[in-house]
Amino acid sequence: MYGILTHASLALLAFASGTASAENAPVKPDSAVIAAIADTDRPAADREEDARRKPAAVLALLGVEPGMRVIDVFSAGGWYTELLSRAVGPQGEVIAYNNPPYARYAEKAIAERYAAGRLRNVRQVTATLEDLELPPASLDAALFVMSYHDLYWRPSDGSWPPTDPAVLLAKLHAALKPGAVVVVQDHVAATDGDTSKLVGELHRIHPSVVRRDFERAGFAFEAESEVLARKDDDHTKPVFDPAIRGKSDQFVYRFRRPGP
Fold first, then answer.
1. Could you give the 3-state DSSP secondary structure of residue 103?
2. Which of 40, 51, 163, 175 is the residue whose CA sits 20 to 30 A from 136?
3. What is the mean pLDDT of residues 233-258?
């Protein structure tokens, strides 16, 4: 997407072709991830999205395995939460975190997702960024899917509270174990100008803004994947525009929380 063939890009190409991978890059998803995606107990509507959303590649970058404790940040209706739940298994745990506006927005989908005791290893947490409590060094991984940009959203009607990315990233840095991974997938903006304005108008964010935020918070940028890149997206339309919805150019970045 930016003329860079990173470790993760090589690994995902290797997975597709069966060739050797780059050093320290995930060659393929854990078998538990493959089984989770193939599980016919998943909602049919979820499974219909697999070809477009490519969860095997995203979760390979995350490196999720059975027994892990993972947080799905701004999990909304829980499409990825369900996959994480199945992949980490009964010995693992997934925190499905939403702030109050996200919880209201996805209220119906959340109720359906967790009805009748489904996904018992998922702990739903609804809290403001300031009130979010995560025990130190308790998490193996964190995932943001098309949600990081919302930290810069500043609607004039006050429907979304002011959110400071630095506050959330500081809490994540403390809660993640040394060596833990964060994956961020989001819609690409063409410029790194006024991020709040871009988010308000297009719901897009420039990848460099995300990288800057994470590096300032003490994370190390490690890899990216172009698996969701779309060269036919000119980055001028809001991602909810019918002409581009579900077909936006997206970046996928992996960061690591250095140890110790």
1. helix
2. 163
3. 96
